[in-house]
Amino acid sequence: xxxxxxxxxxxxxxxxxxxxxxxxxxxxxxxxxxxxxxxxxxxxxxxxxxxxxxxxxxxxxxxxxxxxxxxxxxxxxxxxxxxxxxxxxxxxxxxxxxxxxxxxxxxxxxxxxxxxxxxxxxxxxxxxxxxxxxxxxxxxxxxxxxxxxxxxxxxxxxxxxxxxxxxxxxxxxxxxxxxxxxx
Length: 183
Known about the structure:
single chain; 6-stranded parallel sheet; alpha/beta; Isochorismatase-like_dom; Isochorismatase-like_hydrls; Isochorismatase
């Protein structure tokens, strides 16, 4: 089954809001595996349609820059939470004969959540890599003491039975197992 990696919104505007280095390291390790396996990778960046003063994703600012090396991988823009709001993404995935998408990036409770749900709705098998999908928001953002946002969203998606949710180490073990089983 052909897999592809969707890397969401690892942009200066978000990553500068807090210490997200552990999540970014996990994302980089997943990218390395996909490159080694020669599986397709696509980067998505959020760009606001309006150039609002308060926006983290204002056009023509350094905030929309992806902080990872995208190399030769395609970069698609979106202006809504789901990466599939850009119709070119689905077309590109189908052109690559992808059946299974893996999702990493930011923010877990918005773009990762909406992209995972939409990907499943569009007929893809979906894996969200929970510890490689972070957020810059906190329990205080939502006034919910003790809230672990990635764990909460990961649990909801996992319990849905529609989206597989794993941690980076589980993903790596599965890739190693898949590689060992191939003739």
